[in-house]
């Protein structure tokens, strides 16, 4: 999963980046708010924003993110204890607020919780299991390694199981912010439907797809 980190303290930025990268996250770090804003469409599964940064503060960036990505987790990290600042953060749609100083472990736990990140093998439907770390899909003893886009798509469906996943969100997460035509998305859906029962993925006309396998 890709994470955008905005933190103007160079040492803290490097510490967070190093820790999250060691956990397997793909981290793009910024110390300037305007530079971070230019990158918000690059397919991030989570945003971690400091408030008091140069050019464009974290609250303003949060507002702009929420215009296009209403459901992507956004974690605010700040030394401010002012009630108004905390209230504004939640009012404009932050998912969680962490006061500095904090242990990086706390941030890591928040990210894993908000993004449903787990190293365990996920089981679903009729005895299917999926290991996102190895990209292995297994069913009745048969194992198949998924391509990167198939892995990202299935991981997205599993994290948003029972919810409608829009074309825009698929483009953002699976194509990591790059343009994807509707035909490209449909082609990827067809490939995944060949590897799991077709009725696990329901088409929601003009919106996207609903991943709703039967309960295991």
UniProtKB/TrEMBL annotation:
Q: Which residues carry this modification: 4-aspartylphosphate?
A: 50
Tell me the protein's name. Answer: Response regulator transcription factor
Q: Which PANTHER family match?
A: REGULATOR OF RPOS, TWO-COMPONENT RESPONSE REGULATOR ORR33
Please report the stretch or stretches of sequence annotated as the Response regulatory domain.
2-115
Q: Locate the coiled-coil region(s) and give their ranges.
A: none
Q: Which residues bind DNA?
A: 119-213
**Residue ranges of every copy of the OmpR/PhoB-type domain listed in the record:** 119-213
Q: What keywords appear on the UniProt entry?
A: DNA-binding, Phosphoprotein, Transcription, Transcription regulation, Two-component regulatory system
Which SMART domains does the annotation name? Answer: REC (SM00448), Trans_reg_C (SM00862)
